[in-house]
Design a protein that fits this description.
Helix content is 32%, strand content 19%. The chain has 18 helices and 24 strands.
Length: 590
């Protein structure tokens, strides 16, 4: 091997440059650096699409058997602090230490390669302790101490290297908050999170590793919960038992509501699909009143049946004056179809397989230049005949052969599909599982984490003689439920990318400057108005916004009673994310 290396180096000295498609030491270069995307003896990328990821179980087990507890790598920039992952099963710590792109906007008049600026970060080890200290480009100091043995760590440092349910990874600790980040290639979006809130949002496997810190963790959670409960006029008792009647005792504060600059409205269940035309008219009048008062109103649809253009037309038909007022020139229509299309554009996805039943999603991905998609609907928005068959071996294979003739697919997208079937999910599952078996992981994209998509309310005319069936919520499986079915069918530990509510990507899109394709919304001065606890209220909590829940859609007394009951027993950390700031019977009551 050494002799071959020496000969390769001699060849490089004689021909260091390219000539007729070759250069000296070409084989040696391929041996040490990626050639066609392969792993090599020295090249390893610990990140996936700019995000921390866990090692495969096989590699983790090998390192564990070899008594290796920490793996430090470089050459993969990840913001202003290292990217850390704690493996729940073994405690293995992987750290991508490269921070060379800490500040891409740093002055370069003295050093053209200055991509750090004033940012600095030091990674050191002493015994079993891994220590990180640093200073961000804004002067904020950060750092933490970790041990492979979680029992030897203290909070909040022990949270570093763990993943939140939104997909973000906790990177470091600064001013008693944890810094979580989600990446896209060389761009990293960060957010500061109270350790108690982070504990609530941890994925189950990581929560399990913190059992030894259960008491301290509970204290952090209560520290975060306390002011939020006080906002709802609650008092924490010694045994942390709360009265459900107290939870809802805070009256709607119109003055506080009107202090916001921006209002993010869900459409269905808040403005449309209500119990009566009178309720809809009152809702429209209230929205127009906010616009007339100079407020920014953003209308949001969680169904992929809507493109921005089609929703804009629907908004106009409803009589909402979104094209008037001081914010008329802004993009004030947010659809999950747009969010999904923007995500696929960033990911470089060229040929997605779209599970949908209308053209909204199709129109949005075409708008960003993705033309070679495969959809379950035709150009008129009707379900293609081949997807109306039973889920048989012959039908699944036949569809996959047809799609492969067209070039195959590079992603699976689960939208709102009113004609969802076993055949569609079976084809999606086969693509995911077969590609995984070949060493390629296709992304599964969930257009929201919504499990029960709201269709409307049953009416007296539909059930004239059955009062128990009148004014009842009608629902269908949402994108989140479809993804759950696909993931259970595939059974390879697949984690979908969530581009809708409640998720970090949609939050990032809404905050992103308009010049970068976003909406330029400041969450600090915004209020979410919705009808679903699982999506609207949880999204507001994730983003730190206040929320108004109206009981004209998916959420009614029975759901609120269930939530109160759970809070009476103990304020479960996940349930607290479903507690709105205010509750009203309908939007007209503002």
């Amino acid at each position: 091997l050494n002799s071959w290396k020496s000969n390769e180096l001699k060849a490089f000295l004689s021909q260091p440059g390219w000539s007729k498609g070759t250069r000296g030491a070409g084989d040696l270069i391929s041996y040490a650096s990626p050639d066609g995307g392969t792993k090599t003896v020295v090249y390893f990328n610990p990140l996936h699409n700019g995000n921390t990821q866990l090692l495969s179980p096989a590699v983790e087990s090998f390192l564990s058997r070899s008594n290796i507890r920490r793996l430090l790598t470089g050459h993969q920039p990840h913001g202003q602090s290292p990217a850390v992952a704690r493996h729940p099963r073994s405690g293995l710590l992987t750290v991508s230490c490269d921070t060379s792109f800490s500040n891409m906007g740093a002055p370069k008049h003295l050093n053209r390669s200055n991509n750090r600026g004033e940012a600095v970060c030091v990674v050191s080890m002493q015994g079993s302790t891994l220590k990180v200290t640093g200073e961000e480009k804004n002067g904020e100091k950060h750092g933490f101490r970790l041990d492979s043995d979680i029992s030897a760590c203290s909070l909040p440092d022990a949270l570093v290297g763990m993943q939140l349910s939104c997909g973000s990874w906790i990177k470091t600790v600064s001013n008693q908050t944890v810094i979580a980040a989600i990446g896209k290639t060389f761009k990293v979006r960060v957010m500061a999170v109270h350790p108690g809130h982070a504990a609530i949002l941890l994925k189950p496997d990581f929560k399990q590793t913190l059992q030894l810190h259960k008491r301290e963790l509970s204290e952090l959670v209560e520290e975060w919960v306390a002011p939020k409960l006080r906002d709802n006029e609650l008092c924490i008792t010694d045994d942390a038992v709360f009265s459900s009647s107290e939870l809802w005792s805070k009256p709607f504060n119109r003055k506080e509501f009107e202090e916001a600059d921006t209002y993010i409205f869900a459409i269905s269940g808040v403005i449309t699909h209500l119990a009566s035309p009178e309720l809809q008219k009152r809702a429209v009048d209230k929205v127009n009143g906010l616009i007339a008062a100079g407020k920014r109103v953003v209308l949001n649809a969680t169904s992929t049946e809507w493109s921005r253009a089609s929703l804009q037309k629907e908004i106009s038909n409803l009589g909402i004056n979104i094209s008037k007022g001081p914010h008329a020139k802004k993009d004030n229509v947010v659809t999950v179809s747009k969010s999904c299309a923007f995500f696929m554009q960033l990911m470089g996805i060229k040929r997605p397989f779209l599970l949908c039943s209308s053209k909204g999603l199709v129109d949005e991905i075409e708008a960003v230049g993705i033309k070679d998609y495969v959809a379950t609907v035709d150009e008129t928005g009707k379900t293609k005949q081949m997807f109306l068959q039973e889920a048989t071996q012959e039908n699944i294979v036949g569809i996959m052969n047809e799609l492969d003739k067209l070039g195959g697919v590079d992603a699976i997208v689960a939208g709102v599909d009113r004609s969802n079937s076993a055949l569609k999910t079976s084809v999606a599952a086969a693509y995911l599982k077969w590609n995984h078996g070949s060493g390629k992981n296709l992304p599964l994209i969930a257009c929201s984490q919504e499990h029960d998509h709201f269709l409307g309310l049953s009416t007296e005319s539909q059930f004239p003689k059955k009062a128990k069936y009148q004014n009842r919520v009608l629902q269908m499986p949402g994108s989140g439920a479809v993804c759950d079915v696909i993931c259970r069918t595939v059974d390879i530990g697949l984690e979908p990318y969530n581009v809708g509510k409640p998720g970090a990507f949609l939050a990032d899109l809404m905050q992103r400057p308009e010049a970068e394709g976003g909406y330029g919304i400041s969450f600090a001065r915004s209020i979410v108005v919705g009808h679903q606890l699982e999506t609207d209220v949880a999204f507001a909590q994730l983003c730190g916004m206040k929320s108004l829940l109206v009981c004209t859609g998916a959420t009614h007394d029975v759901h609120l009673a269930s939530l109160k009951s759970m809070l009476d027993q103990k304020p479960d950390t996940v349930v607290l994310d479903h507690v709105p700031t205010w509750i009203l019977d309908n939007l007209g009551d503002i």
